[in-house]
Amino acid sequence: MTDQQPPQMSEEELRAAYEQQLEEQLRTLRVEDVIVQTIVTLVNLGGRRAGLAPGTENERDPEQLRLSIEGAKALLGVIENELGPDAAAIRDALSQLQIAYAQLSGGTPPAGGGPQGGGGQTPPQEPGQPGAGPAQSSGRLWVPGQ
Length: 146
Fold this sequence. Notes:
Blueprint: H1 11-28, H2 31-49, H3 62-83, H4 86-104, H5 134-137
Helix pairs in contact: 2-3, 2-4, 3-4
């Protein structure tokens, strides 16, 4: 009985095999896959920065959370039509992050409104308008046409 071990590859052979494997992966990889993976990573990281996952309460960082929301929204706009029904799950996750951001930052959601984004801030309110309620008077509630 002989113990035959597989022949050892030289460093050059290992490097060539690795490069060949990498080339094959790059050949079959689609940009859409990378964008979706990036969105998922941003949403997951945003959840940690919101302190939503158990044990991540000390990782709360509203600015990092805002960046993760904005980045994921921007990338979602690029491929949303290609995602089909999966886009709804991503939008829901972004909505949860936006709610967490509003709570962490004292009620100020990231620019752009919902996960689809509007590209801008809500219009400023005129404090003390006649007939304005407490929320409107505070300048935090946007009412269409006002």
